[in-house]
Structure formats: structure tokens, C-alpha cells
Design goal:
Order of helices and strands: HEHEHEEH
Radius of gyration: 13 Å
CATH architecture: 3-Layer(aba) Sandwich
Helix content: 25-40%
Strand content: 15-25%
Number of strands: 4
Number of domains: 1
Oligomer: single chain
């Protein structure tokens, strides 16, 4: 995700990682960010009320969604998406 964001952010691409576990403390969340990224890499959010996970029917850790400017899901995968596939799906969303 970091690489896709770095390469495409000038075209308006934003990456948002969302913690959908309501039982995670702020410390759990910050520990995860430190372990797997950086607060400067992209946007990070916590879905305390479950609205995001409900709206997008999130079921598994590591799910990937590509959402276009109109809020439509253009791509969804239940596993971590490899760079090449993610880049291609983001490019498709940008071309619509």
C-alpha cells in the first residue's frame, strides 16, 4: 500500500488503514501502527462505532478495498493484495 500511495498520491490517491476491532485500546492501535507502518505513511483511523466495518461488510483482518471518488467499491479482496494487483485496481478506479 505504501508504494502505491507514494507513486499515485499526486493523482489524488489516498490510503486509509482502518482498525475495525472495537476492543482495541489506543495503545493497541498505536503499537500496530509502529509495527507495520508509520503515521506519516498514509491515513490511519479507528472504527470505534463499527460504521465502516458494517457499511463495507468487513469480515477479516487484511481486507483490501479500492473505493472510487464516488464512494463505490471498485475492488475488494479478503487477503492482503499484492502490489501489482493493487496498483492495477487503483489505476482502473482512477480511469473511471
Amino acid at each position: 500500500m505504501r508504494r502505491v500511495h507514494q507513486e499515485l498520491r499526486e493523482r489524488g490517491v489516498e490510503i486509509i488503514s482502518v482498525d475495525v476491532y472495537p476492543w482495541d485500546s489506543d495503545g493497541d492501535f498505536l503499537g500496530f501502527v509502529r509495527q507495520f507502518g508509520s503515521l506519516a505513511d498514509h491515513h490511519w483511523a479507528v472504527d470505534r462505532g463499527g460504521k465502516v466495518s458494517s457499511a463495507y461488510q468487513v469480515r477479516f483482518l487484511g481486507e483490501t478495498y479500492v473505493i472510487d471518488r464516488d464512494g463505490r467499491v471498485n475492488y475488494h479482496d479478503v487477503v492482503t493484495t499484492p502490489y501489482e494487483k493493487l496498483r492495477a485496481e487503483v489505476e482502473k478506479a482512477l480511469s473511471r
